[in-house]
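Bench log, entry 3. Co-assembly request; chain sequences pasted below exactly as received.
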Amino acid sequence: MYELICIGASWGGLSAVGRLLADISEDVTLPIAIAQHRHPGALEGTLRELLALQIRRPVTDVEDKTPIEPCRVYLAPPDYHLLVEPGSFALSLDERVQFARPSIDVLFESAADAYGDRVIGVILTGANEDGAAGLARIKARGGVAIVQDPRGAERRVMPDAALAATVADAVLPLEEIGKFLYGLCVTPAVTQR
Amino acid sequence: MTSVEPSQSARPAGGEELEDLELRLLLEGVFRRYGFDFREYAPASLRRRVWRRVHAERLGTISGLTEKLLHDEATMERLLLDLSVNVTAMFRDPTFYVAFRQKVVPVLRTHPFTRIWVAGCSTGEEVYSLAILLQEEGVYERARIYATDINESVLDRARGGVFPLEKMREYTQNYIRAGGTRAFSEYYVAAYDGAQFQRSLIENVVFAQHNLVSDRSFNEFHVIVCRNVMIYFEKKLQDHVHGLFYESLPTFGILALGHKESIRFSPFEDRYEELDNGEKLYRKVV
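Structure output for the full assembly:
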């Protein structure tokens, strides 16, 4: 069974992330960690407030050692890398990776290291190649790799790079990713008997 | 030769991955051979930093690095830099310095003499920032800053006071937002590609090696600044360091942490009150 959904987005990500989260059924109880590229001086809390208007899940700006709990959405704070440890998050100020902090690669790779094949990685729109190596790591560890269909993405560089780096389990238009996650994460009651 | 790439079949269910084992052996070797204890550092960042060194040394595995550094001190020194240099910036989080001016400086004015400990000072950006702030507030003359780090060579860089010229634009913006009262360029002269900061800024600074993991408290301080250092530590080590700070502060002593750090959930949570929660400034009360 899966334990964590990781989402990476850059250019165009603010609306794409909001849309995707709104689409994910409340029956999906996995925690969701998000690395969205932002300006280093971006105001703390603005992305959280923005998302809180669109979705009913609680949204948290991660602090050092914030525990990972079901149903919650966790945001990488501006100008920190967000990393996953078993059961909690960690932060770092290490050098930017691919000019980015938070880096999607750092989030995805640490999630794959901590949770192995129980991670689902989702790469959305973006104008750089961050996230490709991270998604490949998730896939190499047996997790699930999902990429937004580049043809419909606001910027296709990031999904294109992810598809070049690994064989995705699903390439989907933004509006279908939520449904796909539901299928992955929610076992129909009838099969549980 | 056996592949080191973890594979589904080779992985014992719920067991330890090979890479985790290699990392553990490396940290044990570093500790036993050189005395530096990184065993309770948070693994996710540590693993990235170790791999960066593995690649820089053109090696293929963490075990390869272990072998090399056990026999070669120069390799160990390079790894030590990778593991202990925390990236920071002058006047990082400008609002912290605004709060320091407003809430800590008035307290400092009430003391005839002030001792400040910057723990884990790395290359010194924060030390120079604080010195500038204290000078501008007129309290530097009766203050002493103890700037410590585990790593002797970063202390040398901090003593040198040369920072990359290309950072000055960012630092100037930070300085202005931090409530700076002068022109930031008055504090340094450009030399080649470096900005040499005024020597007078470190007149009252004592740079010294100190290891938060293994060394004891060495004085009592009115203020301890330790920002974005403990984020690289595991919880248990964090608690240990909080104990060290608690011992080193008098009642009403002030502890400053990074924006994303908290004293909550530490065993010392109840011993402090918030001076400014957003800025993670705490005052010891019990």
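Helices of chain A lie at 13-23, 46-54, 104-115, 132-140, 157-165, 174-185, 189-192. Chain A touches chain B through 27 residues (CB under 8 Å).
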